[in-house]
Amino acid sequence: MADKKKHQDYWTKRVDEIIRYADQIDIDVFAEIARIYLEEAKLVQKELFAFYQRFADDNGLTLQEAMYQLRHEDMSDYQQNAKRYFEQAEKDPELLKRLNEQYASARATRMDLLNLELTWRAGVLATSISSTFENHLLKTAKYAYRKAGDRRGTINEPALRELIRTPINGKNYSEHIWGNVDKLAEDLREVFRRGFIRGLNPREMAQEIAKKYNGARSRAQTIIRTDGTAIISNSVAKRYMDAGLKYYRILVHLDDRTTEICRQIAKEDKRYELSEMKAGLNAPPFHYNCRSGIVPDDEELDSDVVLEKDSLSVYSEDMKNLKESGAISSRRGDIKKQQDNFAERYYTQLKNSNREDVISKMVISSSLPRETVATALKHVLDNQYLLWDSEEYEYRVRNFYPHYDMAQSFQRLYLGNPKKSDIIMLQHESLESEYMGKYKLPYDEAHKLANQKYNYEEAD
Question: What values do phi and psi take at 211, rounded to 5?
């Protein structure tokens, strides 16, 4: 029973870390998606204002004028613009299909020209989002695949790309994106149609356009979260299968946000076959914004499975060899980037190693109380605080970013050859943790107070 509980806790933590990582990088892609939608909304609004400036007076169109523009005006430049769009979309079959549906003849109304412009802009939007989204999913897939097993496994990027394109309930991520953009284009056509017939002024129509783009952006974020959960399930499942596992179970995050769908799945606690897994059907996501994941089956892990053995031991073995692999050299390029990469890699290895083993080794090498070492590690590696994010220019709850000097200190402590400054670092972080946790001090104040007693920055 103790071993089973150990398995459950270990793999629950693994899945939690994958989902937390996905949540963190979702923030970046959401910002990029918001920028793309905002820019496209401005371009469509600009086209609308240009239309009014050319063909309506300051008071807007009357009903008769609007109907005339919609039904009767001949546009000699319609075919010319259509030809230009077809040429530029030559390598994009989805966009070409939509342009062909929109294009009818050489004679068209002003409304047809606007719709053609809209179809083109929607295609540009979908293409831009697809590229951003595919890179995001690949990054998520790589992390999930690594995290689900030992770090010695080779990542087959073509195979992960194929996983990304795997349909969820009949559609892959590209089809979801195009469906969302098609819905946006249809909504905007309706805004134009109703606005012209009702004689709305351009400012009123521009406001409606902004609302439609905001709605589409929100739907895109939901697609990102939901498809992201699917790629996590597929990547983790591939990792398990590569390690020889045959079964999995569903891990449901139970809190006040958990849906009834996932609560019922948690109650059932079924065992599923990996060979029959289909994200969206018998694996997450089970609904939009699903936060559930998959874990190995406990009974299977009780046997001699390579995945479990490697997962629990390989990080400690790897750390013994990191001194050489972590070497920094100007011949390898950007020094700062190498340092950041080393710190991130070492922090990750510490997080995924047997914590009791790490603590024991550092207690021996530092001669500090076990509580001091354990608190320092938990503070630096696990705890989340309200911290300033220099990339987002805002405060948000997160872990501390990996720090190169501290990574080196942790490494020396683990390998048994610490400097005096490394021991001071553990004392500093333990005390800082007390100030931030027990006394609720902000990081800056807690750091300064801890420095008064244990100044790691100035230690030799």
Answer: -65, -40
